[in-house]
Write a structure and sequence with these properties.
The chain contains four helices and 47 strands. The protein is mainly beta and 651 residues long.
Length: 651
């Protein structure tokens, strides 16, 4: 995320009174959001010294590396045509529109409006650091590690050219692409001094935005004209209602960048709200605003009244399962059927000055909470206490989230967007998404491996059925694959979708490929699991999904025509199954893709004689698969060992 330059960086921009709009693109390149497109935020990258020129004796290369004002702070990705089944490959997703750091600075929160050509809303952030400097007598800029007299925000830190700052919300006009300042979020006329904003939620019913302030801990209501319509104080009003000790806003924590106590590499000096009142994620569902609180972390909610104001019925919704180092929940998404998915982000790192570590080492997760149903074991609250986990990326234990999630449409068997399959996929921002040394050989055909950007996968493909996440696609944010991107360099994501008029996708158990979903036909026996997804419905009248839906037996036979061993798979189960697909989960053992008819299914298996592997089997109905609509897929895994004896071609 860097590029060289042969001159000193331009002087810092300063605040100035202006109402002009910065054009995001040439006139021919308009936002043109299409169904299924994603708006993604991330660090804009850096611009370094000219490597052909000697460095000053008292400066290192990193001292002369600045935020790239031409770098991308948010962009639109066209995810409509992967053109293939889920295969964990890198997509060539067109980047159809870009918003630069020169326009808006660094942003995290993203929201999309409800117009036919919707506006995009972006919130200022400190997630990628708080970078400062001061002007030298010769007019050049010297970067600073700590605050001091004359310190100013670095160019590209905030949208200074639009009078922007740490509390700014920007709006990108959906028709023209022009970028303007919507509001500077303040508390009693006092601006945010540096911690910035958390996330943003669009409220179409009341034509307003909800935004969290990481300095004060308040949740503000902002009108679409930029007016502040009021705020919620979780630390005092909601905690008091919940019979918890109030934790008031403390203005003494205020950050001052001209004070030497401020340190670029020490987020403890940045003035964040106390954890008990610090709110980050915000989202609307069924006339309630759900939000995350740093202490715990926890998920809370409060009602929204008919006039758009906050009610007084705040309540605790869920506790996030503990970790060695509690990580903030920075995004929340709801399915139409009531499933709540939350995304974590690593705690702030200590490598901001050298742009190496925006987050500390850890395992930020994406978790899936399901409402409790009659018959579930007694427990406090409205949710099943132990959430399911959705794997993100191939690295480590598949916990590589950067804190952004969004539901989007599904794909048909040909890898084309299916706008009738609502909420069939989940988009998640993350890092090192295709990095796994043990699986490098299998991942290589799918493109570069150090991907920082988006994972696009089945919305209900939880850890026990999609780890590692072979049932997925990936899209990179900046198309740089040198492995030098800072940890935590991605932000949030929103998908452009319409109110769901089609079929809401339901569980298919995370099969790969293809991943399919649809109504269940029951069944039993040993073999393909039903999976842990939406299960068709949620609520008191919905049965739990079956544990299995087919049984299978298999044996190796030699194909004398091809000279290759084939695995003959026989399946018994529901009457609608007539086809299978297979994928090898073991390096060195391979099977072809595509649909294989039953019964039996003849699956060619390649590999060294005597080698063993695991093959994942997906059983489905071929007619349903060809319809382009969600359909059911039962799955299992079989252990195979290629015979050691020769399989020769009959002459």
């Amino acid at each position: 995320m860097s590029r060289s330059f042969a001159r000193c960086i331009a002087p810092f921009l300063v605040f100035f009174a202006s109402n002009h709009v910065l054009n995001a693109q040439p006139a021919a390149d308009l936002p043109n959001l299409t169904l299924g497109s994603a708006v993604v935020s991330g660090f804009s990258g850096t611009i370094g010294p000219d490597p052909s020129r000697a460095l000053p004796s008292n400066r290192s290369a990193i001292d002369l590396t600045f935020i790239d004002p031409k770098g991308v702070s948010a962009e639109i990705l066209d995810l409509s045509r992967p053109g293939k089944p889920w295969d964990a490959s890198l997509l060539s997703a067109p980047k159809t529109f870009k918003i630069t750091a020169a326009q808006v600075g660094q942003v995290f929160g993203v929201a999309i409006g409800d117009q036919p050509q919707p506006n995009i809303y972006l919130g200022a952030t400190s997630a990628f650091g708080l970078h400062i400097g001061h002007r030298m007598p010769d007019g050049t800029i010297q970067r600073l590690r700590t605050g001091g007299p004359g310190a100013q925000w670095a160019e590209g830190q905030f949208g200074l050219g639009l009078q922007g700052g740490p509390g700014s919300i920007y709006v990108v006009d959906g028709r023209t692409g022009g970028v303007s300042l919507l509001a500077n979020v303040m508390l009693d006329g006092v601006p945010n001094p540096g911690p910035g904003l958390g996330n943003i939620a669009f409220d179409g019913a009341h034509k307003q935005l909800f935004v969290s302030d990481l300095y004060t801990g308040m949740i503000h209501r902002i009108g679409l004209d930029g007016a502040d319509l009021g705020h919620l104080d979780h630390g005092v009003s909601v905690r008091t209602t919940a019979q918890l000790a109030p934790v008031a806003f403390d203005p003494r924590r205020r950050l001052v960048i001209t004070n030497s106590q401020f340190a670029v590499d020490n987020p403890q000096t940045w003035g964040f709200a106390a954890p008990a009142r610090q709110v980050w994620a915000v989202t609307l569902h069924n006339d309630r605003l759900y939000y995350s609180v740093g202490e715990g972390p926890q998920i809370w909610s409060i009602g929204i009244q008919p006039d758009g104001n906050f009610a007084s019925d705040g309540r605790l919704e869920a506790d996030i399962p503990p970790q060695a180092s509690p990580m903030p929940v920075t995004d929340i998404a709801f399915s139409a059927r009531g499933t709540m998915i939350v995304a974590q982000r690593g705690v702030p790192g200590s490598g901001f000055y050298d742009y190496s570590a925006f987050t500390s080492p850890g395992e930020p997760r994406v978790l899936r909470f399901v409402p409790k149903r009659p018959g579930d074991p007694p427990s406090p609250g409205l949710w099943v206490p132990q959430p399911q986990e959705i794997p993100v990326g191939f690295a480590g234990s598949y916990r590589n989230a950067n804190g952004g999630i969004a539901f989007s449409y599904g794909y048909d068997a040909n890898g084309a967007l299916n706008a009738t399959a609502c909420e069939a996929t989940l988009l998640a921002t993350g890092e090192r998404l295709r990095v796994n040394a043990a699986l490098s050989q299998r991942l290589s055909p799918g493109g570069p491996q150090p991907v920082d950007g988006l994972q696009i996968g089945p919305a209900d493909a939880v850890l026990d059925v999609n780890a590692p996440p072979w049932a997925s696609y990936f899209a990179d944010y900046d198309d740089r694959f040198d492995g030098k991107t800072a940890t935590g360099s991605m932000g949030s994501v929103r998908a452009f979708t319409m109110p769901c008029a089609g079929q809401v996708a339901v569980s298919g158990g995370g099969a790969n490929p293809p991943y399919v979903s649809g109504p269940r036909d029951g069944g039993g026996g040993s073999g393909g699991g039903g999976g842990g997804g939406e299960g068709g419905c949620l609520g008191p009248d919905c049965p739990h999904p079956p544990n299995a839906c087919f049984a299978s037996t298999g044996t190796f036979e030699c194909n004398p025509v091809t000279g290759q061993w084939v695995y003959k798979l026989s399946v018994s189960g529901p009457g609608w199954i007539n086809s299978v697909s297979a994928v090898s989960l073991t390096s060195g053992v391979s099977v072809p893709g595509g649909t294989i008819p039953l019964n039996p299914a003849t699956i060619p298996v390649s590999g060294k004689p005597g080698s063993s592997g695991v093959i994942e089997i997906c059983v489905f109905n071929a007619t349903a698969a060809a319809s382009g609509k969600p359909y059911d897929c039962c799955r299992t895994r079989v252990n195979v060992t290629i015979p050691t004896r020769a399989c020769g071609i009959r002459r």
